[in-house]
Amino acid sequence: MKILETYKELVAFTKKFKDWACRIAIGYIRVSSREQAEGGFSLQAQMKYLSRYAEALKIPTMYFFSEQESAKQEGRQLFNLMLDFYRKYSNRENCPFLLVEKMDRMLRNDKDKVLIRELVDGIGLTVHYVKANHIQSDESGASQNLMLAIMASLAAFYIENLAEEVVKGMKEKAELGLFPTHAPIGYLNTPGPNGKKVIVPDPIRAPLIKTIYEWFVYEHKSLLEIQKLAKSAGLTNRKSGNPIPKTTINNILRYPVYAGFFYWKGIRYDGLHDPIISLDLYERAQALLAKKAHHNADRPPRKGNYTFSGILWCGYCNYAMVGELRKEKYLYYHCTAKLNPKCPNQKHYACSKDVESQALDSVRAIQIDEEILPWVIASMHEANAEERALCDNSIKALHTQLARNQDRLDKLLTLLLDLEITDETYKDRRERILVEQSEAEKNIRAFQELNPVNLEDGVRLLELVQHSVITYKNQEPTEKRKLLKIVHSNLKWRDGKLVKEYRQPFDILADAVKVHVHKKAASTSGDGLRSGWLSILDSNG
């Protein structure tokens, strides 16, 4: 086993690979951070697991791409090097297998999923997601593609859900009076008595924070003057060690946490931490800032909670579309491309009602007929049952081989005792049979460790979307936006129409529902509806 971690190693590996005529196995292993790797997380465990799998399938020598980086965002260095290697040196005659422990080790964002699919369809790459017992290739059937798409969507959904859980935990901390995120300059994070992190005054920087307020309130110094004085006093950024800029001075003077309270998601909470300045000093600073800036700065600015904020793009110039409230009740969206004054979406605003109406039609397009949904779920279970049966049959065949080899050993011993073979012949034949026994036992263990995909997650996702579609009109903007992000990879506004791109597997569902609506009118029998639906899924394979 060889781990490829640098570009130099990749170049050396490429020179060898071009001379190899056999197909080899490449494994991709990943943890989210260097801290996880150093903390004993699963890089070595992933290597051993994939190596055993390769041995069970008798796949030749393995090489590993090992990465310590989050897969939430695109742009992982080793992942991209691996893709470049496939594009330059692989083809359908000489294309390595790609082995991954779990899908979310490799695919957690939409762009990377598309890149892998391009290699599968273009050069015939075969990807094994080992723990899910799934193989992605250009020969994968409709049910396999559907399940892989659902698994990929679940991986992305996991990240969104994890982020929500983190935010939920922060809100709980805020309600307890604990500052919910990283300590601002002047404070330090430290473990609290209940296991939750709390903030305490930084013995070096806290006195300087108080001095900054006094310079501003009592000596009426400007931000630039304070910035220079703070630099002379040695106030620096904790991470970089650089002097703090004027904008940071402005933020310090506006931050209520130094006076013992804070805002979280627009709500004020009284903190349990020790304040650095008095409430009176903080309020005086806010009065001076308000006088200079002509607005009250002690509350965070309010942002409109609009359904399409951050998910709607201009169909002409690809800039973001932002919501703007007119006369306190009419909401419109317009393009933000200031460098493109000729963009039609800047002059002709999109009415929120029109966008909402077309978005509702878009989510309705993936709503499965209630009488068809049980059959779709049943077909998913049937496909998984076939894979279970294949695995069970393989184990059964290996047990048969073990029994046959044991019978051969018994007969071989009889021949030795009857003096029909020599000791040397006996030892040679017995050694070969024992090697076969050991290989079969190893393969049995490998097949037993292969976990079939958790279909319940896929079923729950379908049912969740089904319920969300039904209740979409009555949901809050935040919930609508969440559903639209799960279902769509892209939403654009052009020529008065919402141009949409579905994520997998919702693109398959949308096509299937569209055709099914037409077929339903021509078929009144339940069997006809089911066969029509399943044929639609097959056509998308």
What does this structure look like?
The structure is a single chain. The protein starts with a strand and ends with a helix. The strands form five sheets. It has a six-stranded mixed β-sheet with strand order 1-3-2-4-5-6, with helices on both faces. It is 54% helix and 14% strand. It has 19 helices and 16 strands. It has helices spanning 7-17, 34-38, 43-56, 77-89, 103-106, 110-123, 142-175, 206-217, 223-233, 246-254, 279-293, 344-347, 352-364, 373-417, 423-449, 455-471, 477-487, 506-522, 526-539, and strands at residues 2-4, 25-31, 62-68, 97-100, 126-129, 134-136, 187-191, 197-201, 261-264, 267-270, 313-314, 321-326, 330-335, 350-351, 488-494, 497-502. With 541 residues, the chain is an alpha/beta fold. The model is unreliable at 35-41, 294-302 and 525-541 (pLDDT under 50).
Round the mean pLDDT to the nearest integer and report it: 76
Major sheet attributes: 6 strands, mixed
Count of separate DSSP helical elements = 19
**Helical percent range?**
40-55%
State Rg: 31 Å
Shape: extended
The share of residues in extended strands comes to 5-15%
Low-confidence stretches: 35-41, 294-302, 525-541
Distance between the termini: 35 Å
Strands of the widest sheet, in order across it, are: 1-3-2-4-5-6
Class based on secondary structure composition and strand pairing: alpha/beta
Strand count: 16
Oligomer: single chain
